[in-house]
Amino acid sequence: MGRAPCCDKMGLKKGPWTPEEDRKLLAYIQQYGHGNWHALPSKAGLRRCGKSCRLRWANYLRPDIKRGKFSLQEDETIIQLHALLGNRWSAIAALLPKRTDNEIKNYWNTHLKKRLTKMGIDPMTHKPKNHALGCDQAKDFANLWHMAQWESARLEAGRG
DNA sequence: AACGAAAACAACCGCTCGCGT
DNA sequence: AACGCGAGCGGTTGTTTTCGT
């Protein structure tokens, strides 16, 4: 059986990571870095595919990650960035340096989308669904949306 | 106290893109 | 120029935790 394992074929582990696996991956990357995800698992003594290792590192083990609850400010930033960029989670995460795309995506899908919907904002367009002009909250978000449009225009103009 | 439903969180999958050959 | 391979991305599914009955 001297054939190089092609990701799916051989007995590669899937599912949740154990503390043991985390330690191995962390230790390896701290010592050698991650030049080559494909080759990494066997070097690090892990029965995982490189993809799985990369994901685990990027979303959990990387040192520059802030874990835990999102602050109110982060909420607003994410909402604004989503208005600007749409579902480009990696782009959004790049502007929230301590958060991962996966975490932001999950947070958006489970919390923010619903919250916006409840407030009468369409989470896709970020526009108010009803034009309740007397409602302060709706005004706030209309204003926010307006600001987002400006930022979007500026980004477009400055791109290059 | 026990069970089922819903939410929150973690990880996987398929696809595309970019790079090297 | 075409192809193959690996990395990264976004959508989706699976698993754990919390909540309501």
Automatic annotation (TrEMBL):
Q: Which SUPFAM superfamilies match?
A: Homeodomain-like
Q: Which InterPro entries does the protein's record reference?
A: Homeodomain-like_sf, Myb_dom, Myb_TF_plants, SANT/Myb
Q: What keywords are assigned to this protein?
A: DNA-binding, Nucleus
Q: Which residues form the Myb-like domain?
A: 9-61, 62-112
Q: Which Pfam families match?
A: Myb_DNA-binding
Superkingdom of this protein's organism: Eukaryota
Cross-referenced CDD domains: SANT
Q: Report the locations given in the UniProt record.
A: Nucleus
Q: Where is the HTH myb-type domain?
A: 9-61, 62-116
Please give the chief subcellular localization of this protein: nucleus
Stated name of the protein: R2R3-MYB protein
Organism of origin is Rehmannia glutinosa (Chinese foxglove)
